[in-house]
Amino acid sequence: MANQIKISPSILSADFSCLGNEIEAIDNAGADYIHVDVMDGHYVPNLTIGPEVIKDIRKSTNKTFDVHLMIEPVNPLLESFAKAGSDIITFHPEAESNPKKTMGIIKKLGCKTGISLNPSTPIEVLDGLFDEVDLILVMTVVPGFGGQSFMEDQLPKIENIRKMIDLTGRQIDLEVDGGINFETASKAISAGANVLVAGTATFKGGPSQYEKNIKTLRGV
Ligand code: DX5
Ligand code: ZN
Prior knowledge:
Strand content: 15-25%
Radius of gyration: 16 Å
Mean pLDDT: 97
CATH architecture: Alpha-Beta Barrel
Number of helices: 8
Distance between the termini: 10 Å
Shape: globular
Bound molecules: D-xylitol-5-phosphate, zinc ion
Order of helices and strands: EHEHEHEHEEHEHEHH
CATH topology: TIM Barrel
């Protein structure tokens, strides 16, 4: 069980002055995915990076780019994010009027598709999407900033989504994002998550600690 857990470090906590080196370091340290938080200063009150940066850091690793779009609207920018080298594109369904259509565009662009649920988003938003979705991301903080505290009240939601995924028989990643540390990682895993996003907890202590941090988060 433990070695099925994937760790997706959020590069939001990396040193942006040497981002390429940071990405090589987490790749070598055993990261499974690379979590890229894209914020537009509109859907969330913070501003981060866009497709140009993704294109450049694509040269630093072959690992899966797990791109988390916190932008509104979503559709007009999908092609740029796909062309920049995204592997999985996750969006917030509130940010588009027809999430199923958005998923179709992502698939057509050759990427896997993810749906992200804010702490206040009910699981009913997933109705009718299980046949196509590749990843479900449960936010355990209000999106916008790294370094916030894990919201334990989201654990029952993770458990319920795990049951729904198992009923489909499909390989759908259940990813948890926000406030994951050595303590909350095991709670998220027990609730049924198989992918953990971790920014602060991965990059803590600098490059010499990344391998240890990732191993500890994975629980091995
Ligand atoms: C929050 C982002 C997260 C965040 C995780 O809006 O989606 O990916 O950066 O950071 P930590 O692990 O520090 O909570
Ligand atoms: Zn994220």
